[in-house]
Specification:
Layout: H1 28-33, E1 67-72, E2 77-84, E3 103-106, E4 116-122, E5 125-126, E6 129-130, E7 144-149, E8 154-166, H2 172-176, E9 182-194, E10 198-212
Parallel strand pairs: 2-3, 4-9
Antiparallel strand pairs: 1-2, 1-7, 3-4, 5-6, 7-8, 8-10, 9-10
Length: 213
């Protein structure tokens, strides 16, 4: 699902507006070894954003600092982060597929913990098996996401919603739009799967800053 980025207003989000690159979503492992292998878990309707989602207390914004690691204890994620830019065609670059326990963050945008919408993305699988965000669709509201920062601190986020979208109806503004408080999106591939085209959509986790240390 490579999509070009169009511009949105808001600090730290000048270039963000489209979806995760096709390289995240090819489903090479399922293509090679799909027989009898379970597909990644997908979020239930109960994990979708509700009218009260995100109204929990928000911690004060942190100063800008590049992140170094993401931890999601509920699904066993503990992974280093690499910076992601845009490709020559204007789509979000992706972490190397061969490094299954590596995620990336959009380094031209908001850093996790400062005011705005920070973006972290990672593969759901690769040719060898499950990758860093294979279980992202199993995450539930209220779960904790910790992002270690290069300034020595840790930004702690609470999950507000976990949703899945078909690529044809991906809500760019909702996912990538500017936010008045520190927010985080964690993105991987999901939705229906085709052995000819790979995954048909994306799983998106919405979270906001609730602490720091």
């Amino acid at each position: 699902m490579r999509r070009r980025f169009r511009r949105l207003g808001g600090p730290g989000n000048a270039a963000i507006a489209a979806v995760t690159a096709l390289a995240l979503c090819s489903g090479m492992w399922l293509l090679h070894d799909g027989a009898g292998t379970p597909a990644p878990p997908q979020p239930s309707a109960a994990q979708a954003r509700s009218g009260t989602a995100g109204h929990r207390t928000t911690a004060p914004a942190l100063p800008p600092s590049p992140p170094s690691r993401v931890r999601i204890p509920a699904i066993g994620v503990d992974a280093p982060l690499t910076g992601l830019g845009l490709t020559s065609t204007g789509s979000l670059d992706v972490p190397p597929a061969g490094r299954e326990n590596l995620a990336g963050w959009y380094e031209a945008g908001t850093t996790p913990g400062e005011t705005g919408t920070a973006i972290i993305a990672g593969h759901v699988d690769n040719a060898d098996g499950p990758a860093v965000f294979y279980s992202l669709g199993a995450l539930r509201k209220g779960a904790r996401i910790e992002v270690a920062r290069r300034d020595g601190g840790t930004a702690v986020f609470t999950v507000d919603a976990v949703e899945v979208y078909d690529a044809r109806h991906f809500p760019d503004e909702k996912v990538y739009g500017a936010a008045p408080r520190p927010e985080l999106r964690v993105i991987t591939c999901g939705g229906g799967y085709s052995r000819t085209t790979g995954y048909r959509g994306n799983v998106v986790v919405y979270a906001h800053l609730t602490g720091g240390r």
